[in-house]
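Worked example 3 (structure in, sequence out).
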């Protein structure tokens, strides 16, 4: 009997036969075994009794796939005699149950460097029906163009596999709508949210937006030498960048516009002396907060231009020469020499 059969439906049963006559012959039937069924007895044209099985309560194959009943026939003799027949009712499945997902929503977090081909999550739906009615297949009901590039759904198992490398900086979350449907057209729907977590896969980039190629040695402390820009595409600690400079140099880094990490300035910290060092090749390094950390660097070349801060200096404080009194006019008596540590015209010496 189909589980969709309406209560009140009747099913004829085999009649009992008793060769006795009169009161000793078949007199009545009774049914025992299950509240889902009752017994009705119809009178035939010749006065015979025809038993019928009546469905008293709706069937549910998922609750009980079989029902065991006993039909008893009794005569009116003394002592009475009875005959019994066992009735086994098999409940035929109907597609009265839709697939049901184990979760109304699936959420999974995966690192952006998860290997291609990995199964990120497996959705599962069950259907208590049997056969084709209980066979569940999966399909994508709603998916964005971007998500369809990255993910593939196995229609038989519900496994969602990564097809393409993820990049947190390109997309940090994807939503899929998955449908489970049985062979009879019933279905259930669930949402799958795939959150991508950041991995420290980007190196900080430090660049020079503007810089002085030359600076005078008399420049004041605090003079801005270069304006820098620092950027790391990662997020959180992976994208937090600190900058540093070589040690023991007359320059330092300071914040600009309240952001030490993104727009540092390179400024003069103390007085220069071209005569001690006429140029600097500064290496600026940016290090992020990842583990392990990544770093990037840039070099800034600065030439120190001369300022006339050095006087000429004679090689001797006193020069002495001895000459004969008959030395002709115009003769070389001695040569004095002075040098100036400055450069260019500032270091060109003349004598009077």
């Amino acid at each position: 009997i189909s589980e969709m059969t309406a209560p009140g439906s009747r099913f004829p049963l085999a009649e009992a036969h008793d060769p006795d006559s009169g009161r000793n012959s078949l007199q009545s039937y009774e049914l025992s075994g299950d509240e889902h069924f009752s017994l009705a007895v119809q009178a035939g044209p010749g006065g015979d009794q025809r038993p019928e099985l009546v469905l008293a309560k709706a069937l549910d194959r998922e609750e009980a796939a079989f029902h065991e009943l006993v039909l008893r026939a009794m005569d009116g003799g003394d002592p009475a005699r009875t005959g019994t027949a066992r009735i086994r009712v098999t409940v035929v499945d109907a597609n009265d149950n839709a697939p049901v997902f184990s979760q109304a929503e699936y959420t999974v977090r995966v690192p952006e460097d998860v290997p291609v081909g990995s199964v990120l999550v497996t959705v599962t739906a069950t259907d208590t029906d049997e056969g084709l009615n209980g066979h569940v297949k999966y399909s994508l009901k709603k998916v964005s163009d971007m998500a369809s590039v990255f993910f593939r759904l196995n229609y038989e198992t519900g496994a969602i596999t990564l097809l393409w490398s993820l990049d947190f900086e390109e997309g940090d979350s994807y939503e899929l709508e998955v449908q489970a449907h049985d062979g009879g057209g019933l279905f259930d729907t669930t949402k799958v949210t795939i959150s991508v977590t950041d991995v420290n896969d980007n190196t900080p980039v430090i660049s020079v937006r503007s810089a002085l190629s030359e600076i005078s040695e008399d420049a004041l402390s605090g003079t801005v030498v270069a304006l820098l820009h620092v950027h790391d595409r990662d997020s959180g600690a992976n994208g937090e960048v600190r900058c540093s400079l070589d040690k023991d140099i007359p320059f330092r880094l300071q914040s600009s516009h309240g952001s030490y990490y993104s727009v540092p300035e390179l400024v003069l910290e103390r007085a220069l002396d071209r005569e001690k060092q006429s140029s600097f090749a500064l290496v600026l390094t940016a290090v992020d907060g990842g583990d392990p950390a990544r770093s990037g660097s840039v070099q800034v070349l600065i030439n120190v231009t001369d300022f006339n801060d050095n006087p000429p200096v004679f090689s001797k404080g006193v020069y002495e020469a001895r000459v004969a009194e008959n030395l002709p006019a115009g003769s070389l008596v001695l040569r004095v020499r002075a040098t100036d540590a400055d450069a260019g015209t500032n270091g060109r010496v003349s004598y009077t």
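Notes: The first strand starts at residue 10 and ends at 12. Residues 176 and 308 are 73 Å apart (CA to CA).
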